[in-house]
Amino acid sequence: MSRTPLPLPQPPPKAPEFGRDTLIACESLVRIYQTGSVEVQALQGLDLAVESGEMVAVVGASGSGKSTLLSILAGVDAPTAGRARVDRWNLLAMSRADRVHYRRHTVGFVRQQTASNLVPYLTAQQMIDLPMTAARTPARTRRARAAELLETLGIAGCADRRPAQLSGGQQMRVAIAVALANQPRVLLADEPTGELDTATSAEVFTTLREVNRQLGVTVVIVTHDPAVSGQVERTVAIRDGRTSSEVLRRTATGADGDTEVIAEEYAVMDRAGRVQIPRDYREALALTRRVRLALEADHVTIRPDLGERS
Ligand SMILES: Nc1ncnc2c1ncn2[C@@H]1O[C@H](COP(=O)(O)OP(=O)(O)OP(=O)(O)O)[C@@H](O)[C@H]1O
Q: Facing residues of 268 across strands?
């Protein structure tokens, strides 16, 4: 008996190696906190890929797992299961010495509370110097790097000031300079504008964008402020410890020559092919436990299971 071949497109010869082309690659990432008999699943199979040179915002409601993700990427916290790679580092298999090296050279971290990033009795220049001294950078290089960072971040005039003599925006810029002192490939910022007014927040975002563009540093910003999304090319939304959607922004030139920003929302598919269908879509079509899937020429349809047999 001859069979008609299925009209399926040819699959690629081999699935790409995990995280091969990305600087940050998280797959099915799980973090469970155990407090006594209570177990909290802060991350429940999160997927995230960030290319080198990108500036990405991670948004989500309070408790959705944003800070947990950032702590893991910062090498401060370790995942319970899944995969996480940043640059050449496997975050699930780092020795203590690896972790020190990773935190010193691969990632820079700006914390939520501005003050917690700074040392009250040191000047801006001395604070930028600290991580380089820890990394045994020669004095001449340290001086040159501190001067370059102070200049790039627009705070050259603040070199000899202590935190109390700086405005909120200047304090945050010093914190960013400290995080960049050892030339990390990735800058992680946890709610960098949480304590700032609107104008100062905009100033800090401009600084982060300049750092991203001028120094080529990959930037990941965690925030629960949806307004931030308009400032970056890609926003990743986390819900209940999983990546639920991504919004990509690009500029396009219309027929009239005007440029406009186009934002498109995407669902995120993991390597096993799982996609989360938004609740309002499910409710609108009464999609419940079982749905009908069909492969069309250039798309896949999902239909409610109406119970009839075909
Ligand atoms: N050290 C911890 N021990 C126990 N539970 C924790 C711990 N850290 C976080 N959690 C829990 O994990 C979940 C995710 O927390 P996380 O701080 O990552 O969320 P978030 O999205 O950053 O929230 P927020 O915007 O309020 O900072 C929450 O339910 C939180 O209570």
A: none
Q: What pLDDT, in 10s, does the model give residues 123-148?
A: 999 999 999 999 999 999 999 999 99
SS3 state at 32: strand
Which domains does the chain show, CATH number per domain?
53-75+96-249 (3.40.50.300), 277-310 (no CATH)
Alpha helix segments (H runs only) across the chain = 66-73, 96-105, 124-134, 139-152, 168-180, 198-215, 279-284
Residue 17 has pLDDT above 60, yes or no: no
Strands 242-253 and 186-190: unpaired
ipTM greater than 0.90:
yes
pTM of this structure: 0.84
Tokens 């699943």, residue located:
41
Say how far residue 83 (Cα) sits from the centre of its chain.
15
Task: Please tell me what DSSP assigns to residue 269.
Answer: B
For residue 149, how far is its CA from the centre of ligand 1 (angstroms)?
33
- Kind plus residue range of the DSSP H or E element containing 234: strand 234-239
The C-alpha atoms of residue 13 and residue 146 are separated, in whole angstroms, by 49
124 within ligand 1 shell (Cβ under 6 A): no
- Amino acid identity, residue 206? T
Q: Is 35 in the pocket of ligand 1 (CB under 6 A)?
A: yes
- What is the position in ligand 1's atom list of the atom closest to the CA of 69? 18
